[in-house]
Backbone:
């Protein structure tokens, strides 16, 4: 179990992370979200033992993080962490040895993972000769080859096409099924929604939202109604509690302040003809994020 | 952690020596050093103008050709210059068109100055040739003047014979000053120049390697797996191992060159001999260099190793502060200048014999590695002074390590140049 308890980090007088707490249990995928400068990287660095918290404690399996424990963590940085002059094989051996693996074991597992990601032919090629997507695959392999207890993934899908995103997702799900903990950060809210059971949203180092995704969505008052009917949008806009109404492809999207106004909207729609759709949806994570943080997520 | 450290040292060293370029460069170095050691053989093998003797025709209007020839030959033998051939040819003045590279010296009688001469050549003759001819003419003139002075032959012989000089050196341990200059050239060539080259290579390699890991976020993965301290030491140790291996290889190449030279000599495959090497060895022996090496060799090796470590620490620290190779190149310039100062001062140590300033510089860490050995081998530093210089270098290196590590720990994970110096100075106070 990863336990982040009341962690605060100052850089001189600048507060980077303020009293952050969360727990990741085995088999859980946890999302750490926030815009630039929210404190995500600082948090990752503290978990990886690269920075010491000014206050608070970080422990993995009830032991405070140290160099013995970081062997049990796989780290995928947002920016490239590969040494481009090395070959794929040399690179993986380098990082995996630093994670405490023996070379024979590394080579055995490397062949498996290279085949799994469809990049076996690049084993002896230099990293710099690989495409961005393939480099991301190698970087991912370096993070998972030692089968860590905790996987810290900062933007794991960068530079990947949808097929490879799916491939990565499957591997991450396998790790979850094996009882591994996954700490995950992504700009793509649909990925976070697909994956994370629990999350924390940071704003300028402070926690503005935390809990399970299900609870967060349920507790979020604003709802979206998707309608397909011959109804005048202006009539919908006039309803009390409707904050927004617009056309999106064939549907009309109506945003309401809370679920109490569903019935009022339904009454208006009911009067119109050709009603084929009336679906009430929870707000998307992206919407929740925008409303909570008050600004657009970093692109 | 021990295994990881070993792996890091091995990895870093392998990256330096297990490359195509290391092999290619070493093949070139080997060939180059063998060539340098056997350069005279190679030059002789290819031949050239130097093989044909410069011909000097004498137009003798004085009937003094034999005397001229005697004085000329004696002079060229003293100067070890045997590339001349003299020939008496009084008709040469009328045949100047076919002179080519040859020279005509005309000896004329003169009632006032006894002897006048004219030197005729197609192109300006070399300074050496001119000096030999004019010196011969001056001696010949003395002979003519003395002959006409009415002195007996015995008196003339006594007058022209060289003054006998007896040289007495009171200090039996004193180094022969006449050999010092040659000695300095040998020390700087054999010890200082390779050391200088090795340090420059090491500084460049170390900086490039650390920057390479730092420019990507690879450093975060590495430092999250192994403490910055071990990473720092592993880089320094790998750099030290590299220079020691490369240094030994350079000596091996010279040794191969000497063996090849010896084979040439014993099989008579070339005209040159090994007198140059045996002369050098004799000179070093006479100057007491081997005795000095026997006494201070170990201290010198320790001084070299300590100084290599000091340079590696400084280089690694500077590299950790920078975020790209260009910045590192600029930041390491002062280090290069320090090395250059050491290099030139080591050269000057012989010229400014007994200079207090140079002796003081012999104790300054980073400079001492080039100056102290030179001072010791030319007899300006005693063994105690050399040990003192080594101890100071050792203490300084320890402090360079302590403070270098503090900077390294912060610098290695710093990707911004904003307030860089402020951060680095602050890190010096950080004992963690």
Residues:
């Amino acid at each position: 179990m990863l336990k982040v308890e009341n962690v605060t980090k100052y850089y001189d007088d600048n507060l980077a992370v303020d009293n952050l707490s969360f727990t990741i249990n085995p088999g859980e995928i946890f999302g750490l979200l926030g815009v630039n400068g929210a404190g995500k990287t600082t948090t990752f660095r503290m978990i990886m033992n690269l920075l010491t918290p000014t206050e608070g404690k970080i422990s993995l399996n009830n032991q405070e993080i140290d160099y013995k424990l970081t062997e049990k963590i796989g780290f995928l940085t947002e920016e490239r962490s590969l040494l481009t002059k090395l070959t794929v094989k040399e690179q993986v051996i380098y990082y995996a040895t630093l994670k405490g693996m023996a070379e024979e074991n590394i080579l055995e597992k490397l062949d498996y993972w290279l085949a799994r990601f469809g990049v076996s032919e690049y084993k002896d090629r230099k990293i710099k000769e690989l495409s961005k997507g393939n480099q991301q695959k190698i970087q991912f392999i370096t993070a998972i080859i030692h089968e860590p207890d905790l996987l810290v993934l900062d933007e794991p899908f960068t530079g990947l096409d949808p097929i490879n995103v799916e491939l990565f997702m499957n591997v991450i799900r396998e790790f979850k099924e094996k009882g591994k903990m996954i700490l995950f950060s992504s700009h793509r809210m649909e990925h976070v929604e697909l994956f994370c059971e629990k999350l924390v949203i940071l704003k300028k180092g402070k926690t503005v939202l935390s809990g399970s995704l299900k609870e967060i969505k349920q507790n979020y008052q604003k709802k979206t109604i998707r309608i397909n009917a011959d109804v005048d949008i202006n009539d919908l806009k006039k309803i009390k509690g409707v904050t927004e109404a617009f056309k999106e492809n064939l549907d009309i999207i109506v945003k309401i302040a809370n679920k109490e106004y569903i019935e009022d909207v339904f009454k208006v729609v009911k009067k119109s003809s050709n009603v084929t759709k009336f679906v009430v949806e929870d707000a998307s994570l992206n919407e929740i994020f925008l409303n909570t943080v008050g600004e657009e997520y970093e692109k | 952690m021990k295994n990881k450290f070993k792996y890091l040292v091995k990895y870093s060293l392998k990256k330096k020596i297990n490359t195509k370029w290391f092999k290619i460069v070493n093949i070139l170095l080997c060939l180059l050093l063998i060539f340098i050691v056997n350069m005279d053989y190679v030059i002789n093998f290819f031949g050239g103008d130097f093989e044909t003797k410069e011909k000097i025709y004498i137009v003798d209007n004085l009937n003094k050709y034999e005397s001229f020839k005697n004085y000329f030959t004696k002079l060229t033998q003293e100067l070890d210059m045997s590339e001349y051939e003299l020939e008496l040819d009084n008709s040469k003045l009328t045949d100047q068109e076919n002179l080519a590279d040859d020279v005509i010296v005309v000896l004329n009688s003169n009632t006032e100055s006894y002897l006048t001469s004219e030197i005729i050549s197609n192109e300006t003759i070399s300074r050496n040739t001119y000096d030999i001819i004019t010196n011969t003419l001056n001696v010949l003139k003395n002979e003519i003047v003395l002959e006409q002075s009415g002195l007996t032959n015995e008196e003339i012989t006594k007058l022209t014979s060289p003054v006998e000089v007896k040289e007495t050196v009171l200090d039996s341990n004193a180094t022969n000053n006449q050999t010092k200059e040659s000695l300095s050239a040998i020390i700087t060539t054999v010890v200082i120049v390779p050391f200088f080259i090795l340090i420059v290579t090491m500084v460049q390699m170390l900086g490039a390697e650390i920057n390479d890991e730092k420019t990507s976020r690879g450093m975060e993965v590495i430092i999250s797996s192994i403490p910055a301290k071990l990473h720092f030491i592993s880089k320094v140790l790998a750099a030290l191992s590299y220079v020691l291996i490369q240094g030994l290889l350079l000596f091996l190449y010279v040794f191969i060159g000497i063996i090849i030279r010896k084979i040439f000599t014993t099989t008579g495959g070339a005209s040159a001999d090994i007198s140059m090497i045996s002369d050098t060895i004799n000179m070093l022996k006479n100057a007491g260099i081997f005795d000095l090496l026997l006494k201070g060799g170990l201290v010198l090796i320790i001084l070299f190793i300590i100084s290599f470590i000091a340079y590696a620490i400084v280089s690694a620290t500077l590299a950790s502060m920078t975020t790209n190779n260009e910045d590192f190149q600029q930041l390491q310039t002062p280090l290069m200048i320090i090395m250059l100062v050491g290099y030139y001062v080591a050269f000057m140590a012989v010229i400014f014999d007994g200079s207090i300033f140079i002796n003081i510089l012999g104790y300054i860490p980073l400079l001492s590695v080039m100056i102290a050995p030179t001072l010791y081998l030319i007899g300006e530093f005693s063994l105690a002074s050399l040990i003192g210089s080594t101890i100071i270098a050792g203490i300084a290196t320890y402090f360079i390590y302590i403070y270098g590590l503090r900077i390294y720990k912060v610098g290695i994970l710093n990707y911004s140049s904003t307030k860089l110096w402020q951060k680095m100075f602050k890190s010096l106070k950080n004992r963690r």
Remarks:
- The radius of gyration of chain B is 31 Å.
- The interface with chain A takes residues 1, 3-4, 7-8, 11, 212-213, 216-218, 220-227, 413, 432 of chain B (CB under 8 Å).
- The first helix of chain B runs from residue 2 to 17.
